[in-house]
TrEMBL record:
InterPro entries: P-loop_NTPase. It comes from the Bacteria. This is Sulfotransferase family protein. It comes from Spiribacter aquaticus.
Length: 260
């Protein structure tokens, strides 16, 4: 999910395993922040709204696609631009993707918002999700959590681990920018409501909106999955993230102290 609001100068980036679906559904169906431009997954249709707002996607040159009343030449240009996937709003866009799409000037005017979560907890969630065959593979994979963790924490040519690249890094920082505001998985309702206040947008309140929140399922203490060595490996690899969002391994369900 990516949400752009030109009037409010608002950009929402959907990170992985952080209650992003609950957040996007609320923003789109209950608030003005989701009333301009958005793109989300096809299965969002089950919530009663389309996966994208027609004719309202951003295109190259920092312009939205023209309305039907515009000239045929405008539509031809817009159609050509839409053929390139990097030239339109897509689901799970990173901050750098959006910057390239809308241009530096507009990007600098906006506040960028995303969700974050305790990385030890998020990795357990990611493991269960992929183990169930929902990670894009044709078959559920079979490996221990420790093996999964070892693979996920391996560092690529870009100096970032697979886990960091998947979970948070592309949504938190980029070329000369750092996230402006975060929504905490561990304090979802309050974080979302406070975000609306920041943008002077009214809402019924997340808890009053009857939005399905995945984290309300029976919770398990993620610590049971970790050996001391594995827990330390996550702390070491996510050291930069943890310097910004000071999560504690031994404090499940607790929002972090802020280091930003």
């Amino acid at each position: 999910m990516t949400i752009l609001n030109r009037n409010k100068k608002f950009i929402y980036l959907k990170s992985h395993k952080t209650a992003g679906t609950s957040t996007e559904v609320y923003l789109i169906t209950q608030t003005a922040l989701g009333s301009d431009i958005y793109r989300t997954s096809k299965d969002i249709e089950k919530y009663g709204f389309p996966k994208k707002r027609r004719d309202r996607e951003f295109a190259r040159f920092k312009k939205a696609l023209p309305a039907p009343r515009h000239s045929a030449s405008d539509w031809i240009l817009a159609t050509k631009l839409k053929f390139g996937s990097k030239m339109r709003v897509r689901e799970h866009m990173t901050g750098n993707d959006v910057l390239d799409l809308v241009g530096q000037d507009f990007f600098n005017q906006c506040s960028v918002v995303t969700n974050v979560r305790n990385p030890w907890d998020a990795l357990v969630s990611s493991y269960k999700w992929q183990q169930g065959g929902r990670g894009g593979g044709t078959q559920p994979f079979e490996c221990s959590f420790s093996e999964f963790l070892s693979r996920s924490l391996s560092v690529g040519d870009n100096g970032i681990s697979i886990a960091e690249e998947y979970l948070f890094d592309p949504y938190i920082s980029g070329r000369g920018w750092l996230i402006d505001r975060v929504i905490f998985f561990e304090d979802l309702a309050n974080s979302i409501d406070e975000t609306l206040k920041t943008f002077r947008v009214e809402g019924v309140g997340f808890e009053n909106a009857s939005i399905y929140e995945k984290r309300t399922r029976k919770k398990e203490d993620y610590r049971i999955w970790y050996s001391d060595a594995d827990a330390y490996a996550v702390e070491e690899r996510f050291s930069r993230f943890l310097s910004w969002f000071r999560y504690d391994f031994n404090s499940p369900g607790t929002p972090p102290m802020m280091g930003l």
